[in-house]
């Protein structure tokens, strides 16, 4: 029996809807395997700005640091998308959280459930068997480099910046993961143009001899984006910088059929944060149609990575697989053959997963 304290941070939009289901799955796992999980909640993003004026209140950060893991929803609101001049923005809370918690490694598994082969716009024969683990560096790059407006606001720049140690620590995590899989690592950069990418490649090449059992491949970002669609099975573990990783993993969501299927883990040297990659999706907020499976699969990552509960994690993944095999779908992963009685809302999909776990 293990005692774990989990902070639930729903955030904005559909974050509250999907984390509610994720928390229910945690409760089912605790009951099934004899653990004791305790919970607390905190604000981040637009809802935090509205309540406190800050996108990441000090109270939230303190609760995060005290938790064993964080189950996260999403941040973002159309109000800020339509107002580029806003000085305080929901996404600032996300970036500050990553920096303050030292979450330098974002793990995004892209695993296609066979039942969803028809949900992607890519041909099934191209997709079948695809299983990619992305390591996206999370605390450097243009998101954290110096930025400024010049010439009365008519010129702008953002600095793509990396230090050697930042590259080393994410690359080592990727090498270690590659050792547990098929021993293939692809590093993605733009070393033919960018100086920061040349540093990135130099570091990868310097570390590679420490892992002689891992085959290393280098790809430029533009070629990698093309190959990801053309031949996704050629990739196993992929490591890349913050900006490139952001773009590639969203592209890779189409391999899995929907962004509603993709979980992620943000880890470093302290509390891990587990979240779906789909964002706040205000166009469907409150309609009860959001796909909770990415949040549920984020729970599986939490159980495995932060808690070392591999059996419990596998049970969650098996439950999701069983529900999909039974033909149940939310609308984002439904196709023309989905029967009307198999088309579920957010809570109904959660209930199906819970029934398999029970």
What does this structure look like?
With 358 residues, the protein is α/β, with parallel strands linked by helices. The protein has 13 helices and 12 strands. Helix 1 packs parallel to helix 13 and helix 7 packs across helix 8 (195-207). It is globular. The protein starts with a strand and ends with a helix.
Largest sheet: 10 strands, mixed
Low-confidence stretches: none
Helix fraction, binned, reads: 40-55%
The whole-angstrom Rg is 20 Å
Q: Give the count of helical stretches.
A: 13
Q: List the strand order in the largest sheet.
A: 2-1-3-12-11-4-5-10-8-9
Strand portion, in percent? 15-25%
Q: Can you give the mean pLDDT?
A: 94
Number of strands: 12
Structural class, judged by helices and strands?
A: alpha/beta
Shape, per Cα inertia axes: globular
- What order do the SSEs take from the amino end to the carboxyl end, as H and E? EHEHHEHHEHEEEHEHEHEHEEHHH
What is the end-to-end distance?
18 Å
Q: What layout of secondary structure does this protein have?
A:
Blueprint: E1 3-11, H1 15-33, E2 36-41, H2 46-52, H3 58-66, E3 69-74, H4 78-81, H5 90-100, E4 105-111, H6 124-127, E5 131-137, E6 147-150, E7 155-158, H7 164-180, E8 184-189, H8 195-207, E9 215-220, H9 221-230, E10 237-240, H10 242-252, E11 263-267, E12 272-276, H11 293-305, H12 310-325, H13 346-357
Parallel strand pairs: 1-2, 1-3, 3-12, 5-10, 8-9, 8-10
Antiparallel strand pairs: 4-5, 4-11, 6-7, 11-12
Helix pairs in contact: 1-11, 1-13, 7-8, 9-10, 11-12, 12-13
